[in-house]
Amino acid sequence: xxxxxxxxxxxxxxxxxxxxxxxxxxxxxxxxxxxxxxxxxxxxxxxxxxxxxxxxxxxxxxxxxxxxxxxxxxxxxxxxxxxxxxxxxxxxxxxxxxxxxxxxxxxxxxxxxxxxxxxxxxxxxxxxxxxxxxxxxxxx
Length: 140
Fold this sequence. Notes:
Elements: H1 3-23, H2 27-38, E1 47-49, E2 52-53, E3 58-65, E4 73-77, E5 83-89, E6 95-101, E7 108-111, E8 119-125, E9 132-133, E10 136-139
Antiparallel strand pairs: 1-10, 2-9, 3-8, 4-7, 4-10, 5-6, 5-8
């Protein structure tokens, strides 16, 4: 191999190694991801709600946008009433699936593996009783 070609191959090889090093995940980026995940389901929450039901079948709550704080849309009841919810992604304008949120504060995922920056709203179903409040918090 001539000297010029050898030098070109060496420089190209070094550039390739440098490019792959930049693209490879580092320990620092992994730590950042775990730190963000650790903040999920921890106050302050992304949203709170407490719709009052008289006779309607459901209530649609706000328009929200997911963040990098959680990979899922998490919800929990903050009073003694359980209820059903579904996430409606504005892009599709239909319920993803119905999720039961038990009374008393157990977290549930209303949607999983949601991309950051996704807009959605939450539909809360009344359930069996009239004149009731379905209160809760969400983190996303």
